[in-house]
Amino acid sequence: MLKVATRPLNFTLFTVATQSNNTIRLVKQSDTTMSASPRFLNYVEKYVINDVTIMSTFYTEVDSGLQVGDRVFIVNGNYDSSDLISSNKYSIGSDGYKILAIDRCKISLNIPYTGQLPWNEDVIDNFIKIYYVRNQREFDYFNQIYTSRDVYTNKFELGENNFIYVNESYSGIVSGDFGVNNGVTQSGFYGLSSSVGTSSNWINISTELEVGLTASLLSVIFNNNSRIEVVNGTFVDYNNQEWRENDIYVFDYTTSKWIVDDTYMNSFITKSNFRGGNFQGKWNKGLYGSYDNKISWVGTNSNWNNGSTINTLWESGSINSIYSS
Length: 325
Known about the structure:
The protein contains four helices and 24 strands. It is mostly beta strands. It has three domains: 40-112, no CATH class; 124-258, no CATH class; 272-314, no CATH class. The strands form seven sheets. The protein has a seven-stranded mixed beta sheet with strand order 11-10-9-6-12-15-16. Strands 1-2-5-4-3-17 form a six-stranded antiparallel beta sheet, with no helix packed on it. Strand 15 (248-252) and strand 16 form a beta hairpin.
């Protein structure tokens, strides 16, 4: 049986006579307020000031604890502060958006209203999809998935906007009436090319993908938004690039790489955002990391007291559930 120790609680009546022993002193310290870094809902509405100026109102998933007058940053999406700073570091909002009004999850910022949602969304059929193959069983299964969107064919036939990635070689199905294929001999990105009868050959498209997918590999019937979505697992490819499940990638012709398109990522609102380097000091609140690059929390000469992380490798150090100014 569980034994619970209890003790009586003594309360003193607060009166003029006992006031000297019951005085509560409030000491104002710099920035001692607690605040979270919640995600936005994908919705925006007008905030009208004096029947003339129209700013933007957003909604968060949970109460942020932020206050009117706070300067905040938006991470990811169409209002990403980093993109704003990169385009013009002197523009309005480059030092943080100002909270004009707040009612728990309802936050109005000094962002002129355009109606643009916090982040972009699209139906999955408009994305070019990559499926990660983790073993021989999955490879055999993908060889036998057929679709009849336009004609009856394998789901990964070139022109269907679906491809696979493998980290090793896999054996094909050499005979039968369904899913016969030649297998794959090395790591890379692949699509199927049908030959005579029911047999198909896996074609390595890695070279084409490294320079942006060519139109000859994509559908001439179905639309695509020129973006890749990783469907069923996170993996690191032969070039040591990480592809994260459910993330959206767009080809950057400046760097000749597929990068995360943060305009399709859920947006966060935060009082601070550390995006790169080795942080030293006390991390008390805010968002640590970004989807642009994976960074590390080293834990040397630094204390974690409160906050949130995204796309961060935690190398060492303790997570404290406290707040320190």
